[in-house]
């Protein structure tokens, strides 16, 4: 069925909602070039589905690339106020396994699989009359979803959106954010650039975000609920700035895309457990075996033994470490990164599963 046909069915109120327990296939409908190294990929379900999610949430995609299944999380940059389509906006990371592939390969008509929506980083959980959104680089996506949501609803919410980019040519969603600012008196867009772009000298705030800059751009900083997303050093700097400003950190919320940060934030695996007593976990594809005590997560035991397994959030949320358990049983405490029907098929999240017996993992 054509998308127009799908939209018509949806408009007439007969579309079903996307059900994360059942639906997992998305069809690419459009690819948009946002900046020189950022593209937006727009998806719908193969049959009409209305996407329900909270602005700021993400999907975990399961890509089949050169015969390998690879999971990556991408924020839904679109707004649930436009439920027929969802979009993700992806920066091409040099040397990466997925983002260069998406940029080079993903075309309208191609299908991908995705789990979600997932995640707790959303303004809906923290209603406030005034928000400050702080983003760096591709960290703009969850905040863009929130900004689009408020704009579509003509909400009275007061938003200041401060975004850091390398140069004016790197400002993602620049025209759309400028449009929001031009038609909404209660929306301000404050882009900050580190350098000029070729052919476009930058006349706005220049350099990295600093407290004097923040105070100048957002004098009522203390009255705002703050949401931040960006590279780890950027978010670290923001936290230091806000602490210096005496900001009430109960009203500060952040999300990291940064694999290494998330890994660093995770409890360190205890390397002494490599040879200690516990259950034997055998990895059938790599041929490796590790010992995992009953109170240790399988992922931590494998990492402690020097294995590199796919993982991201390390807290049962993103689904990146999802693996098939060929035999054995585990105690798993996840936070939504796996569906019941996957559990029924013998899948587990290694980052939040402790062994109850010897295990064979299909990795
Ligand atoms: C909740 C969440 C939401 C996200 N939302 C977005 C979003 O909206 N937009 C977006 O662009 N990204 C987003 N991300 C990040 C995204 O999931 C990917 O991490 C990102 O696209 C890079 O993936 P990749 O496969 O291209 O790179 P990867 O293969 O993960 O590689 C990343 C970097 O590590 C290097 N590297 C890889 N393997 C090694 C190795 N063995 N040794 C040394 N270096 C290595 C690569 O060269 C590259 O520079 C999000 C992440 C999370 C957790
Ligand atoms: S690493 Fe995110 S669910 Fe396991």
3D structure, described in words:
The protein starts with a helix and ends with a strand. It is globular and about 60 Å long. It is of the alpha/beta class. It has a six-stranded antiparallel β-sheet, covered by helices on one side. It has three domains: 115 residues, Translation factors (Elongation Factor Tu (Ef-tu), domain 3, Beta Barrel), CATH 2.40.30.10; 135 residues, 3-Layer(aba) Sandwich (Rossmann fold); 91 residues, Beta-grasp domain (Ubiquitin-like (UB roll)), CATH 3.10.20.30. It contains nine helices and 21 strands. The structure holds flavin-adenine dinucleotide (FAD) and FE2/S2 (inorganic) cluster.
Order of helices and strands: HEEEEEEEHEEHEHEEHEHEHEEHEEHEEE
| CATH C-level of the largest domain | Alpha Beta
Q: Write down the oligomeric state.
A: single chain
Residues in helices, as a percent range: 10-25%
Q: What gap, in angstroms, lies between the N and C termini?
A: 38 Å
Annotation, overall tally of beta strands: 21
The radius of gyration over CA amounts to 22 Å
Second CATH tier, the architecture of the largest domain: 3-Layer(aba) Sandwich
């Amino acid at each position: 069925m054509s998308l127009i046909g799908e939209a018509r069915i949806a408009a007439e109120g007969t579309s079903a909602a996307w059900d994360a327990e059942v639906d997992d296939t998305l069809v690419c409908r459009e690819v948009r070039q946002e900046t020189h190294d950022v593209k937006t990929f727009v998806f719908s379900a193969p049959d009409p589905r209305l996407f329900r999610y909270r602005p700021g949430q993400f999907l975990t995609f399961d890509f089949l690339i050169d015969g390998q299944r690879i999971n990556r999380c991408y924020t839904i940059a679109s707004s649930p106020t436009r439920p027929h389509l969802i979009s993700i906006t992806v920066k091409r990371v040099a040397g990466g396994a997925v983002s260069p592939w998406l940029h080079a390969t993903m075309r309208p008509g191609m299908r991908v699989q995705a789990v979600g929506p997932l995640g707790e980083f959303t303004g809906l959980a923290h209603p406030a009359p005034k928000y400050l959104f702080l983003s760096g680089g591709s960290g703009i996506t969850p905040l863009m979803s929130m900004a689009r949501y408020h704009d579509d609803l003509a909400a009275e919410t007061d938003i200041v959106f401060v975004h850091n980019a390398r140069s004016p040519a790197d400002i993602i969603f620049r025209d759309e954010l400028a449009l929001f600012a031009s038609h909404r008196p209660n929306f301000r867009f404050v882009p900050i650039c580190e350098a000029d772009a070729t052919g476009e000298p930058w006349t706005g705030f220049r350099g990295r975000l600093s407290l004097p800059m923040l105070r100048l751009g957002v004098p009522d900083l203390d009255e705002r609920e703050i949401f931040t997303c960006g590279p780890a050093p950027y978010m670290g700097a923001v936290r230091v700035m806000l602490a210096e400003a005496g900001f009430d950190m109960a009203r500060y919320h952040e999300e990291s895309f940064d694999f290494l940060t998330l890994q660093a934030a995770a409890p360190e695996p205890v390397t002494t457990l490599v040879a200690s007593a516990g259950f034997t976990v055998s990895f059938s594809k790599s041929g490796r075996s590790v010992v995992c005590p009953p109170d240790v997560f399988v992922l931590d035991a494998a990492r402690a033994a020097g294995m590199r397994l796919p993982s991201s959030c390390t807290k049962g949320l993103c689904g990146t470490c999802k693996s098939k358990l060929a035999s054995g049983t585990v105690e798993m405490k996840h936070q939504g990164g796996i569906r019941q029907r996957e559990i029924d098929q013998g899948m587990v999240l290694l980052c939040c599963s402790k062994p109850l017996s010897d295990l064979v993992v299909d990795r």
